[in-house]
Amino acid sequence: MSTTIAAAPPVPKVETPLQRFVSEFVASRIALFGLVVFLAIVAIAVLAPWIAPQNPYDLAQLDIMDGRMEPGTVGGAGFTYWLGTDDQGRDMLSGIMYGLRISLMVGAGSAIIACLVGASLGMLAAYAGGRTDSLIMRLVDLQLSFPAILAALMILAFLGKGILNVVFALVIVEWAYYARTVRGSALVERRREYIEAAQCLALPTRRIIFRHLLPNCLPPLIVVGTMQVARAIALEATLSFLGLGVPITEPSLGLLISNGYEYMLSGKYWISFYPGIALLVTIVSINLVGDQLRDVLNPRLKK
Amino acid sequence: MTAFLLRRLIQAAAVVLVMSLLVFLGVFAVGDPVEILISPEADQFERERAIKALGLDLPLWRQYLVFLGNALQGDLGRSFVFNEPALKLILERMPATLELAIGATLAALIIGLPLGLYAGLRPNSAMSKGIMATSILGFSLPTFWVGLMLIMVFAVQLGWLPSTGRGETVTILGMRWSFLTRDGIAHLIMPALNLALFKISLVIRLTRAGVRETMLMDYVKFARAKGLSPARVTFVHVFKNILIPVVTVVGLEFGGTIAFSVVTESVFAWPGMGKLIIDSINVLDRPVMVAYLMMIVLLFITINLLVDITYSLLDPRVRLESKS
Hints:
A: mainly alpha; two-stranded antiparallel sheet; 69% helix; flat; B: mainly alpha; 14 helices; 2 strands
């Protein structure tokens, strides 16, 4: 009697949630492309002091004789201005690299602070309920019924220019989105059995909120957060363009574009054009990533 | 219905009151009110007199009541720069902004509706995918930069359209309008399109989603089964039904358009309220800032109120809910 050992059934591959998330995310080529571009932009911004041909903040390195040179001209310092120079002889490529630092810093910084503030208030509203809830949600409604650009404009009008003031203004106009998102998902999660179980175990409220409730509210928060970073960067650029954002000594992309405005009418397009392209690529790449995150993290789209 | 209206009106009034307090505190508490409200060129004697005249020696809550009382009478202070009542300055520039915002809204509908309709009817064609990809750009592109690029291409390179300003205007009912002259229209095209950019994308997406949803409805299938021509089904049965939500959203967006015209007006040097407020902020003309802010608050609250009332008229559930 020959016993043939039946081939063991193939062990189903067990995917951890993270692996599943990664494989679903990379399923979209365009989102992957967006992520790669975004990481490249972050790398350029971080490494700017080492890879930029020139330090645009160091006035000693600038040669006013090189002002408003066309892209591709070789300047007095001996290197080529691939993207031209602005009115003060600043290399646009270096200016953009350093400008990206400011733009990303302001965008990400304000998004993180707004997320902390908004998520805490949203969680408080959902958990406390009653008067606290309606007070916080009234504030959210008031904030959302008012266009972000105007609210930020007025805050900066009263506070004046400055990176910290811009971050503050962006936090004020953005927290409401996070608060609404967290409150919405926390209200749903609160009624689930695992929260009830945790409450039956008499776990402290703080532990229930931070270890049980919050992790389950994270996916929508991440999606909103990604989109808000893009929005914050665009808003900061707009405010800086209007002359209300970052100070002239530390130009963000918006301020670089604004500097080129007056020269554009005489056909010197590159001072405004290239920083705008950098801004556009940054925002689009973040939005592509955010779009895919929304699809992957949305449980309603799961089979 | 009367009770509902009354409740809504009281709520709106409360919000106006809260915002006026915020504006008041913004101007009076953040900076030194003397520095803010009295022209820096004033000498010592003039300052003392102005402090008395403006009531700055009173306690803060009394000052707020005075500010409120003046505001109710339409007195929001005088501009330092123009030496004219701030409210009058803003009202003078309002037609230009309204013209721009209405132009942008119309442009969004005229461009967005057909494109959205096409993308909804043929969701898988290459053209539709192109339309949708472009609409993502519309959400992502920084508006002010697109404005600059429009100027660069159409005004500087091609020379087809004037780059800035409002052009020739005609006075009707005491207000200056530029949409009635050829020159004015030429000046209006680029700013209106620029301001419409975001809304075009919005209209495309709303229309497309609406069309795709409506095409699956029983009444559309029935209309097809009846043997009606595709054109009739599309334009009468589908299009008319999606028009309502699209127009509602675009109407709701109108306030946002007026707010965002601040940016477009700065790019195209369009002499409206938005340009005025930016100029005022840059020269610290605070009375104009306060007046503009109060006007905008009033505008937004009116729009929200109208929307609420319209909803309650259309949907009785809203009214009944507020009763219980």
